[in-house]
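Database export, one record per block. Field names are fixed; values are copied verbatim from the stored entry.
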Amino acid sequence: MPKISPETAKAHREEIVDACEKLYQTMSFKEITLQEISKVTSFSRPTIYNYFQTKEEIFLALYKREYDRWNEDLEKILNASRSLTREQVADRIARTLQKREQLLKLLAMNNYDMEANSRQENLVAFKAAYGRSISNIRDILSRFISDMTEDEIQGFIYAFFPFMFGIYPYSVVTDKQKKAMKDAGVDFKYQTIYKITFNCLIGLLSK
């Protein structure tokens, strides 16, 4: 690849991730290929390999971007308020995830394959964004719910972060899935991302 500036390389990577994000609105992970991504960028498939070696690396970059966006919202909670009740903390965090449907959709995927098929430096960058989210949640709890012990905060993190993997499948349901549930005789009340998240947070924060 010809020598280019770090800024240009970053812009090229972002264009590729943007294309993946656009396709992910209407296509499944399985359907999206490097060839499909190249069709909505200014790069050929061989050129994409200069920036990402696998489709999973592109999705991991999109995943990282979603955590970065969530972190921005979590940090706004930390910077905007001097005091919050437990219910307000639950409300604020739930509202941040209501905006991050794409993050929740990615969480519902098989992350083991995505991470296994990505180079170590990309995985480290992703884990840093993920770790920042854990740190932000920890800081929110420590600041606004001062009577929570360190063990309670740790317990919250180990309950809430795994819970996030199931939010999307329970709140974003296709007509086909709804019909299957109805035909199976399952009486299921569908709820929004906000409602599911808020109820979980209230339960975890109640003493």
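Remark 1: Residues 94 and 187 are 25 Å apart (CA to CA).
Remark 2: The first helix runs from residue 6 to 24.
End of record.
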